[in-house]
Amino acid sequence: MANTKPALSPANAALDFLYDRPGFIVRRAHQICMSMFAESCAGLDITPTQFGIMTIVKHCPGIDQISVARLLGHDRSTTMLVVRLLAKRGILDKTSVEEDKRKNALSLTPAGQTLWTQCDTVLTELKHTLAEPFSPGEREAFIYLLNKFNAAFNDRARTTLEGTDS
């Protein structure tokens, strides 16, 4: 297997202790993904959290904010703030739920649908770019292992990621 770690000078070889830590590797991969997301979506004025919320609302119209937070693995207050911002921008529509006036049913506005489609096009291309270093089998294994890791430690996170069956 080829060495894929950064080349280190002999004086810095002790950094293998750092570079071999899963947390360091995952954090660095996250930095790279977020940087590439920002670059890809530069003209769209959208964040990964905003796109995640928009995607859930697109596929589950009428969903409430608490359910969105659970499906994204975000805390309620962050989700509420982002939903409020998207509504203020005219991207999301919030409608009071008849059975519980404290809840809002969320849906994408026409402007939100348009923005989501633009983002989806750009981010589908980014998904392929991020897969380029891998063979098809490696990509499948990479995604499988990340999902396995997340499932194994989901309950250790500050906010858990809950599926649609919860």
TrEMBL record:
SMART domains: HTH_MARR (SM00347). Coiled coil: none annotated. InterPro entries: HTH_MarR-typ (IPR000835), MarR/SlyA-like (IPR039422), WH-like_DNA-bd_sf (IPR036388), WH_DNA-bd_sf (IPR036390). Transmembrane segments: none annotated. Keywords: DNA-binding. It comes from the Bacteria. Residues 1-151 form the HTH marR-type domain. Pfam families: MarR (PF01047). One of its GO terms (molecular function) is DNA-binding transcription factor activity. GO terms for biological process: response to stress. Gene3D superfamilies: Winged helix-like DNA-binding domain superfamily/Winged helix DNA-binding domain. This is DNA-binding MarR family transcriptional regulator. It comes from Pigmentiphaga litoralis.
